[in-house]
Amino acid sequence: DYLKGTQTREKNELLSRQFGIEYNSLPLIFRMGSSVFRSKEAVAVEEGGVSGKQLEGEVVVDHCNIIEHAFWEEHPHIFSYS
Fold first, then answer.
1. Mean pLDDT of the region 23-28
2. Residues 18, 33, 31, CA angle at the centre, nearest 5°?
3. DSSP letter string over 3-65?
4. What are the Thg1 C-terminal domain coordinates in residue numbering (predicted)?
5. Is residue 35 within 8 Å of residue 74, measured between CB atoms?
6. pTM of whole model > 0.90?
7. Please, are residues 34 and 63 in contact by the beta-carbon 8 Å criterion?
8. Contact 77, 58 (CB under 8 A)
């Protein structure tokens, strides 16, 4: 209950004063957490004499701000159903 109702600035001051931790200088993993998603990119394929593109991807662990529009512009496939 100690932190209930406190603002971000107050929490950062508390971290600094009590523990000597400067929040803004912490690595992103501790400030943003971890997001796990599959990256996708179009890869040229040829099957049965027909060429085309297929989406391929790999699992990515990223420490980023998923609230920002830039994240969703870079990864629009996350909410697609294909």
1. 93
2. 40
3. TTT--HHHHHHHHHHHH---GGGS-HHHHH--EEEE--EEEEEEETTEEEEEEE--EEEE---
4. 2-67
5. no
6. no
7. yes
8. no
- Please name the amino acid found at residue 18: Q
Query: Which pair of structure tokens corresponds to residue 19?
Result: 């523990």
Instruction: Kindly report, residue by residue over 27-80, the tens digit of the pLDDT.
Output: 999 998 899 998 887 777 788 777 777 767 888 999 999 999 999 999 888 887
Instruction: Work out the pLDDT band at 81, boundaries 50, 70, 90.
Output: low
Comparing C-alpha atoms, which of 56, 61, 63, 62 is closest to residue 77? 56
**Tokens read off for 77:** 């496939």
Half-sphere exposure of residue 69, counting CA atoms within 13 Å on the CB side?
0
Distance between CA atoms of residues 62 and 31, nearest Å: 12
Q: What is the identity of the amino acid at 49?
A: G
